[in-house]
Amino acid sequence: MAERNLVLLGPPGAGKGTQAKELAARLEIPHISTGDMLRDAVREGSPLGQRVKAVMEAGELVSDDLMTGIVRGRLAKPDCARGFILDGYPRNLAQAGILEGVLSELGRGPVRALELEVADDVLVGRLSSRRSCPSCGAVFNLVSSPPKSPGVCDKCGSGLVQREDDKEGVVRERLRVYHEKTAPLSDHFRRKGLLRTVPGSDEPARVLAALVKAIG
């Protein structure tokens, strides 16, 4: 079977994490997020991992140079031989170039991008309706998956809160930054004929089916 090297794109709240996990299970390839890669590197304790640990403990951002080593090391592992799904990377055009260079060095095929398209107003409504439990971490949505008792966590009985990241003004700012910094990736992959777009507003099972169809 040909390798399936995939990048999942989409704005905050589009459901990338959920769909990436389901798609990875369906295709039997690993779902890899930026956080996964960083945690793996630190856990392995390699010289590169130690550098990453020092940066993270200092509260600084991991540089593109360090990320290049992290990405190369992760994608070279045997479980990626048949492909992978990257979620959260690349985030900008510079990182897209890094990824393409790494794949070339590894003798791998090109990466294809799948983009979940969801209107900003839908995303604002979706994210601003989220409520989180500060005690156990459970997440609810007042529209699609509300708690059984208003304002109370089903799992531990604690009071639910709205995170700062989920407040409407913050959500709109996150979307503005996404459109400015990350959305140009769509044009990058489209010019190369490597982009497929999928409506992401439907119920999750239908979105998954559309993603599978887009891959072919």
Could you characterize the architecture of this molecule?
By secondary structure, this protein is α/β, with parallel strands linked by helices. It has a domain at 4-119 and 182-215: 3-Layer(aba) Sandwich (Rossmann fold). 48% of the residues lie in helices and 14% in strands. It has nine helices and seven strands. It has helices at 16-27, 34-44, 47-57, 64-75, 93-105, 120-128, 168-182, 184-191, 204-215, and strands at residues 4-9, 31-33, 83-87, 112-117, 130-132, 139-141, 195-199. The strands form two sheets. A five-stranded parallel β-sheet has the order 2-3-1-4-7, sandwiched between helices. The longest helix is centred in the last third of the chain and has 15 residues, at 168-182. It is globular and about 55 Å long.
What are its keywords?
216 residues; alpha/beta; Rossmann fold; 5-stranded parallel sheet; 9 helices
